[in-house]
Amino acid sequence: MATLVIRDLHVSVDTEHGPKEILKGVDLTINEGETHAIMGPNGSGKSTLAYSIAGHPKYTITSGSVTLDGDDVLAMSVDERARAGLFLAMQYPVEVPGVSVANFLRTAKTAIDGEAPKLRTWIKDVNGAMERVKMDTTMAQRSVNEGFSGGEKKRHEIVQLELLNPKVAVLDETDSGLDIDALKIVSEGVNRFREQGDRGVLLITHYTRILRYIKPDFVHVFVDGRIAEEGGPELADQLEAEGYDKYVNAGASA
Ligand code: ADP
Ligand code: MG
Ligand code: MG
Q1: What's the total number of domains in the chain?
Q2: Whose CA is nearest to atom 19 of ligand 1?
Q3: 43 lines ligand 1 (CB under 6 A)
Q4: What is the CATH number of the domain that holds 43?
Q5: ipTM for the complex?
Q6: CB–CB of 163/129 below 8 Å?
Q7: Is 223 exposed, middle or buried (0-12, 13-18, 19+ CB in 10 A)?
């Protein structure tokens, strides 16, 4: 089982002028095996939602709840969230100078499983995951994300997704900055993850392009810190044709 439930989530961020409310009551349920796309204009709070689920310290939950299979996610540390089965691929993956990809992956896997992976199978698994996203396996010896191209960073996120195999994956603009070949490779990685059948995916994106390769079950339009519209995959087609104007203007006049 893997059900992520977000209820009336309000989140503020600390700014130099004091706290500013970014999320203004988000309700979302991701059941086992479902892929949900969140689509919205820049600045609408999509990344804030992703960071809030992952437990980034900069974001303060002022009210609402997030549960995974009934367990209170907001009461968990960042590590506990990962061990519970939550994974976040960040929009802007951080560089970690001095830590190799190989060590980073092994440390993350060990933290999640509670024991170090068996060395022989692990090396095979890492190489296999890298090869499937067409990452040169020599990159395992390089520092995490340091000097990686945008596409290499996103492929590395997919390698993590495959190796860590969470229950619910939050993918924040995993498509941004990718050329068409990289977009297909990354999408195939997400689809392999989905093929397990019981995994949940929250796919955050500004553009409809990736939804041609990863078919969502539900689409949510995110505007000004809340969900303004919900529907099936056809909603993405409508957004592609009409853009976000209708929703942004509706919010402004309300
Ligand atoms: P999106 O991912 O939809 O583009 P974000 O969640 O990144 O939106 O940002 C939503 C709003 O919150 C923006 O106005 C942004 O400037 C503001 N914001 C997000 N994080 C911070 C922060 N750490 N400090 C100040 N403002 C922030
Ligand atoms: Mg509310
Ligand atoms: Mg964002």
Answers
A1: 1
A2: 48
A3: yes
A4: 3.40.50.300
A5: 0.94
A6: yes
A7: buried
